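step=encode ok
step=design start
structure_in=
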């Protein structure tokens, strides 16, 4: 991510330290992760200590300090999804994209995470790809679904 893009995101928020979390979210949305150079630039422009920014980025699970895939896959393993076959869904996703939860494939195409609840228990089991919910997902439909994210 180049400095001009980072500066533009910061400028969109009037260089206000009170917008720090939103600035970080916008940078991550653009880049799929938060490189150290981006954090340093934010620190410099907002005059916020880098240690404070690092504290925020490690506290909130939504931030990533390592590269993520272009497509983020989340599989719910909460109780309602679990009893409806979430483990089979997770196993199938792992087989299809070749990574385990918490990992990103070498092509930076997919990242996989498990979540404890997505708040749509009646749709379980649920898989979310790039914010798009796939409810009542059957293992047999996963390959076809993931192909839509090529």
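sequence_out=
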């Amino acid at each position: 991510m180049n400095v001009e893009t980072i500066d533009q995101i910061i400028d969109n928020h009037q260089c206000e330290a009170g917008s720090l979390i939103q600035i970080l979210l916008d940078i991550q949305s653009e880049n799929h992760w938060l490189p150290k150079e981006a954090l340093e630039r934010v620190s410099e422009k907002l005059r916020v200590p880098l240690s404070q920014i690092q504290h925020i980025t490690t506290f909130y699970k939504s931030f990533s300090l390592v590269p993520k895939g272009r497509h983020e896959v989340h599989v719910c393993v909460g109780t309602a999804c679990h009893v409806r076959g979430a483990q089979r869904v997770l196993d199938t996703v792992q087989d299809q994209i070749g990574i385990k939860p918490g990992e990103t494939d070498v092509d930076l195409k997919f990242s996989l995470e498990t979540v404890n609840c997505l708040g749509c228990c009646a749709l379980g089991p649920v898989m979310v790809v790039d914010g798009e919910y796939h409810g009542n997902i059957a293992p047999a439909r996963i390959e076809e679904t993931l192909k839509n994210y090529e």
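step=design ok
step=annotate ok -> The longest strand covers residues 71-76.
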